[in-house]
Design a protein that fits this description.
Two copies of one chain form a homodimer.
Chain A (H helix, E strand, L loop, with lengths): L1 E7 L3 E2 L5 E2 L5 H13 L5 E4 L3 H15 L2 H5 L1 H7 L2 E4 L2 H12 L4 E4 L9 E2 L1 H9 L3 E7 L6 H6 L2 E3 L13 H13 L6
Parallel strand pairs in A: 1-4, 1-8, 4-5, 6-8, 6-9, 7-9
Antiparallel strand pairs in A: 2-3
């Protein structure tokens, strides 16, 4: 598996569907890096153009990787070591391309959008299993902007529970998506 | 489906495997209530014997259900309306029993424990589909104590990703578990 994931803090929508750069949260870094470690993600990119937010993310990583946190809770260190902070998506794509020798297939995720580019979970598993490099993109705030969805190669089928309610946190959505894509023997 | 879930803040282990009452966190209430709403949970019990923690949880609910939050973000209101705060597991079991006319099957969850009581996801789905009342128990901190696991009727198979790392947040674990149990057509 050559699977990467990115948490984009820009460009994303706010509640009023304005394009913004959202704030980095400590909880997202912890929860998503632990998911990344569980499901075999090679690198988890935290993307924000805001320098103060990059520094905030770096301070969290430093604490848990090099500081007191590393001895207090080595499991967090092991997870957060998968994180790289980047200022733009393009930079992360170039880094993945350099590392893997080919450009990744960009699969965007969204809570509700329907689009010609929709790919099913089975379809996405097929791409991953074929050995291609796959880069899963998650949006913070009210989700990735249209421009980001256009930029992606595919858009993953939205999660549907048993109700019409589709307002999961990005932490919960990423958990469901990674489990659906990567747990091949999930005992169901 | 007659499915309930509880987030227990006592009795759970801390890092040193001492039995403690953990603190309620706002993020857990938000993420888990949104999961509950997505996956058709009837009531999401937040269980803590600590009165200040009960009050803290009530303040969060009040803000999002009756206060400014209710108009600011009605999706959060809709999710948090499923939450009930209780001081002990027994009280929630009595409440469920009164509501449903029968005692619930208690299914505990844990990151790693193996036990004679282990039930697979398929097994748990069978119980849910049979029409029985099921009460899923999640532990905060370092997980439910042995006494709680003993008390449960079954212990759900731990989540296994693609690595030997099993340190998901309770938010991510609950997301994976509810999706495995409840999304019958998950497009995989």
């Amino acid at each position: 598996m050559r699977l990467y994931m990115g948490l984009l803090h820009y460009p994303v929508y706010n509640k009023r569907r304005q394009t913004i750069a959202s704030a980095v949260t400590s909880m997202d870094l912890h929860d998503l890096s632990r998911l990344a470690r569980t499901y075999g993600i090679k690198t988890f990119y935290v993307v924000t153009p805001l320098e103060d937010q990059q520094r905030f993310a770096e301070r969290i990583l430093d604490h848990w990787i090099k500081g007191y946190g590393a001895t207090y809770n080595p499991h967090r260190k092991e997870a957060l070591e998968l994180v790289r902070i980047a200022s733009a998506l393009d930079i992360t794509i170039r880094e993945i391309t350099a590392e893997e020798g080919e450009a990744p297939v960009l699969i965007a995720t969204d809570a509700s959008r329907r689009d010609a580019k929709i790919i099913t979970y089975r379809g996405a598993m097929g791409i991953i299993d074929s050995g291609k490099v796959v880069y899963l993109l998650f949006g913070t705030g009210w989700g990735l902007t249209e421009s980001m969805i256009k930029r992606a190669d595919c858009l993953l089928d939205p999660i549907e529970g048993v109700s019409d309610y589709n307002h999961l946190s990005v932490r919960a959505a990423a958990a469901v998506i990674l489990d659906r894509l990567m747990s091949r023997d999930r005992g169901v």
